[in-house]
Amino acid sequence: MTIATTTELICFLVLSAVVVLGALGVVLLSNIVYSAFLLGGVFMAVAGLYLLLNASFVAAAQILVYVGAINVLILFAIMLVNKREDLKAIANLTTRRIVSAGVCAGLFALLVRVVVTTPWSLPGPAAVGEEATARIGEHLFTDYLLPFELASVLLLMAMIGAIVLARRDVLATDVVTGEVADQGLIEKARTPLLINRAD
Amino acid sequence: MSDFLSTLPSLQAYLLVAAILFCIGVWGLINSRNAVRVLMSIELMLNAVNINLMAFSSFVDGDLIRGQVFAVFVITVAAAEAAVGLAILLSLYRNRVTVDMEQFNLLRW
């Protein structure tokens, strides 16, 4: 083994370990703030895997979009809804977890079997390496032009939808009298709209 | 074992890492009681899919790298999904004053 392949192997093993252990931490840790920061670590390790695969553009996009936008959004959501609450106990919670872990292990076994037994057509054509970014740009503006434009429409729709869903002045007028109600009063004396049947 | 190690990082190794990540995401999606953690599990699963696409793009489709273009689109959709999902979560929290998934059973038969 040359020193280059050894370095690549070590980088791959370390990044894979970070991805797997970080994902386990995201799912299993009880404090959700730790989970959110670990999720950022997982995203960065995945970006490292992309760099190992000669995909510098997608790695940069991964860092910008996932770590810079989605993770920050999740942290903001945690701060907005982070009320200490004792979750009600559910019957058979442990059984449920074990059964679902069994189901996931079965899914994993299936995936491993597919990965191992499929005759992949390797080695494929020579990788373009550093030209990948230019090649992605060509794809985006020739044969993938329609999905590219649709993605922009999708992002616009998601932005408007998020604003509409998260804004607060849904009850601008009093429902009963039809008068314009004071928004501050509504916010303070706010009863939950959906009555909880379980209580 | 050293034989296997010397072939790393191969396509199969990347696919295995992605499979582990996807299964952890599925488990978290089923078992999380905090709604924010459910969204995080979905992001984990999307990342697993992206690793698969990138591995195929690099090993099988090295000259056209269509997998990387797909990965860019998946990242876009994931961003939109996260924004809308968290907005729904905020609006749910405002109405139910909890983030416990077990309490969100209004639409359940």
Main attributes of the structure:
heterodimer; A: 199 residues; mainly alpha; 7 helices; 68% helix; B: 109 residues; 4 helices; 0% strand
Structural features, described:
- The complex is a heterodimer of chains A (199) and B (109).
- In chain A, 20% of the residues are buried.
- Chain A has 199 residues and is mainly alpha-helical.
- The mean pLDDT of chain A is 85.
- Chain A starts with a helix and ends in an 11-residue tail after the last helix.
- Chain A contains 7 helices and no strands.
- With 109 residues, chain B is an all-alpha fold.
- Chain B is elongated.
- At the A-B interface, helix 1, helix 2, helix 3, helix 4 and helix 5 of A face helix 2, helix 3 and helix 4 of B.
Integer-rounded radius of gyration of chain B: 18 Å
**Succession of helices and strands of chain A:** HHHHHHH
Distance between the termini of chain B: 52 Å
N-C termini distance of chain A? 65 Å
Uncertain segments of chain A are none
Multimeric status of the protein: heterodimer
According to DSSP, the number of beta strands of chain A is 0
The SSE order of chain B reads HHHH
Shape of chain A: extended
Poorly predicted segments of chain B: none
Tell me the fraction of residues in β-strands of chain B, as a range: under 5%
- Amount of beta strand of chain A: under 5%
Radius of gyration of chain A: 24 Å
Short summary:
Chain A is mostly helical. Chain A contains seven helices and no strands.
List the helices and strands and how they pair.
The complex is a heterodimer of chains A (about 200) and B (about 110).
Chain A: H1 3-28, H2 32-52, H3 56-81, H4 93-117, H5 132-141, H6 145-166, H7 183-188
Helix pairs in contact in A: 1-2, 2-3
Chain B: H1 2-7, H2 11-31, H3 35-59, H4 66-96
